[in-house]
Structures are given as structure tokens and as C-alpha cells.
Amino acid sequence: MTxxxxxxxxxxxxxxxxxxxxxxxRDTLQQVNIRDVVPLLVAxxxxxxxxxxxxYAKNSSEEQVDALIDLLKTKNHWVGPLTDALIxxxxxxxxxxxxxxxxx
Length: 104
Fold this sequence. Notes:
By secondary structure, the chain is mainly α. The chain has six helices and no strands. It has one domain (11-103): Death Domain, Fas (Orthogonal Bundle), CATH 1.10.533.10.
């Protein structure tokens, strides 16, 4: 008798999937003012204060979004806080897209 064991995806697999999802959202996130969402990510301990400063130091909003995505790719448990930050800043449609991408 053969038994199939189901296991959860590894942390590395989950990070790779989430990184791909962030890349898929790159253009959509260009609509977001980073200064609106980053403080909430710091408050939720997703980002550190010095990381916030590094993001703000970027010259353009496109560079800021790219840097935010690169930072989030190194973090765990950022989906909920980012979704919350988007909703709190009137970007619920983007939050919905993020959640839909996570499901697929």
C-alpha cells in the first residue's frame, strides 16, 4: 500500500512565488505613493526605519517602487501588511489584485 504525504511548500518556494507575484504587480504599484504605504510597513515591522530612509532617498517614484519590491522579496509575512497599507491609503483595487495573485 502506498501512502501519499502532502507537505507544505518550503519557505524558499513560498518566497520565490511571492517574488514572482511582486514582479507581476510592479506596473500596478507605480500608482502608489510609497510615502503612503512604507510608514505602515515600518509600523508593522516588515521594514526597518533605515530601509524607509533608503527608499525615500531614491530619485524617482519608479526607483522607489523597484527598491520596495527588492526589499519585500527579502522579507517574510509582508502580504498582509502591504494589503492593509494599500487599503488604508485608498488603493483597495490594488490590494484586491495582490490578493488574487496570491491565490493563483
